[in-house]
Amino acid sequence: MIGFLRTFSLAESRRFMQCKLVRQCGFSVQTTESALKWADSLVPGLDSHVYGTMLGRCIEQNDPISAKAIHCDIVKKGSCLDLFATNILLNAYVKAGFASDALKLFDEMPKRNNISYVTLSRGFVSEDPVGLYIRLLREGHELNPHVFTSFLKWFVNLDKAEIGWWLHSSIVKLGFCSDAFVGAALINAYSVCGFFDSARSVFEGILCKDIVAWTGIVSCYVENGHFEDSLELLSRMGMAGFMPNNYTFAMALKASIGLGAFDFAKGVHGRILKTCYEFDLHVGVALLQLYAQLGDMSDALKVFNEMPKNDVIPWSFMIARFGQNGFCDEAVDLFIRMRQAFVAPNEFTFTSILNVCAIGKCSGLGKQIHGLVIKAGFNLDVYVSNALIDVYSKCEDMDNAVKLFSELSSRNEVSWNTIIVGYENLGESEEALSVFREALRNQVSVTEVTCSSGIGACASLASMELGVQIHGVAIKTSNAEKVAVRNSLIDMYAKCGDIKDAQSVFNEMETEDVASWNALISGYSTHGLCREALKIFDSMKDCDCKPNGLTFLGVLSGCSNAGLIDEGQDCFESMRDHGIEPSLEHYTCMVRLLGRSGRLEKAMKLIEEIPYEPSVMIWRAMLSASIVQNNVEFARRSAEEILKINPKDEATYVLLSNMYAGAKQWANVASIRRSMKEKCVKKEPGLSWIEHQGNVYYFSVGMLSHHPDMKLINGMLEWLNMKAKRAGYVPDRNAVLLDINDEEKDKRLWVHSERLALAYGLVRMPSSRNRILIIKNLRICSDCHNAMKVISSIVERDLVIRDMNRFHRFHAGVCSCGDHW
Ligand SMILES: [Zn+2]
Ligand SMILES: [Zn+2]
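A: This is the predicted complex of the input protein with zinc ion.
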């Protein structure tokens, strides 16, 4: 000890004491300055060694602000740190995440060594690791395993793992390829970019394979979907004498789930229990995946209940899986338990629980969670915000959905899609299309969801011109081949009255699903082409596609539209053979079909056999059939049942009144009018629309005064009235229930919305266009139906009207529905 002291000069011994004192005295942010002053007072002018010690202390105490203060002091005094101390300062900045400070210091360093580079690389502070690596080479620093592994990690961190091969050559050249430390980093880089062959050859080249290398190569095979190989590697690892650890157990579980080898996975679970790894987070989450995959949420819950619950991942996983499996109450319960356990939710938890709210349309809970999201500061996260937008739009609160959407600065295509689908589901097709256009203007990348909901909006508006344009957009964005887009195209073309185009979209499909078949079948059915619908149904049964409830609905409604009684009955009876229980809609079709063919008794018997409470729609079908067949008794009973469920059902009063008027029972007609007045029955306003040059024009009954083309339309209507009367059209005044004279009644009939839309079409559309398509929100009335037949031969054009039930194609005085609708 004495000899040791003797070799010290006086200054050196003072500095030694100083460092020792500095090391002993802990200082914090508030006392940095005083510590500096105090240290300075011992010997004026601190040197690198002292500063280095103090900076080391800052790193130990996780106190980057003090490190910065010391840096200021150095700059102020004009002192200069040596390389060793500067690297410590650099490390302090890197560890604190002060990227720009670190880079600035690095650039200003008069000298650097490979430690400076390694230090810099550990903080991932720059987006240009390649540039820095080249600098390192040019400056001639030593390349060692630390340099390689740090740069490889940096590449992976920046999603640039594929440039790892670029270091691989230097690694081989310098002979580090057999080093387990470098090898593991290379395996990881190759694994991330999917080059499992390269990863394998690196692995095989490692001389002394350690557990890290083994785990790395196994996880590489699992992450890249080569489950069998990964299990083989695991058994090789066991033979090499390595005990499995938590990572390898998690990998073994993942691999066996991927292979569907659930019994094997359960065996792994047994080994995990023996080695007590079930309390490990990675193992626990893999076990949850196993039991959730097996579809047994109660087993998953058992595993979950045994796990330590301080981490958010298992909670999020369970909430998400409960939600996806439709156990919404369980998901909500778990979320509450998680809050009680003081585990802070992350963006995945919030997204999952919000999805549950959206599925269950729980607007109250959704709003509460919105509050939590804001409190936890996740309101700027795009995934969470998208989930919130979805909750509001599914709960039919588009105002709040749009408000969130417009406030979201980082919106992505999912945000746009959610709004478009939200409007579309609420039937606000025009709004949906306007958001769709805005998305295109904003150059949002168009997905299949965007395309299919845009096309869906065109289908409900019967806006074929726009539909064709969006079809073009789908082709341009390579979405046109996707099944969902194809299905909505089939539906759109069919609903816009062009069943041929619908068929050709279907024919061009490589793989069709049940929705494709359904769209085509119901397309033919609404067009009244039931024989074709039945043919398609037969070819569907020949291929692998299993029909569902909607398929049968399409076929049955086709049969009832065309009056195919035997085919309809066969189809209805075969439903249970396909494992489908008929719903109220199926019964409605059958009642319509039986009633239409005059089998009223049978129809009434069927209604009585329905295992559920019959709906308004069923009684309505029965009522109109009874009226057509002049069965006053059944008509009265059906009307009573309808009015029991819906006392203000306007259509029922109209039908009953028509029937009494037809039977000349004027007292009954008067009593119906009285009860309508008493119950304040109001007609749902009839609305028709027509598309012209990509715009949709609406007409509501009697409303003409504001229309810019009012004069032209009125002129056309007068001309049509005159021509129709000459061709033998007699107005059916029973369709008007008001106490007014006949002349007034005739006037009112001529302002029904479909006639206004037709007059507009005749005025505006060139006569070269043979087909005029009009959409109506209600059922077409008997008088308009008569008038349309007559007009179709006067103007010599095809008039197509899609009412709430089906298509009517009027051609040369005849309607495709055969006067049954
Ligand atoms: Zn009408
Ligand atoms: Zn018709």
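The beta strands are 687-692, 695-700, 771-776, 798-802, 807-811, 814-815. The pocket of zinc ion (ligand 1) is lined by residues 752, 781, 783-784 (CB under 6 Å).
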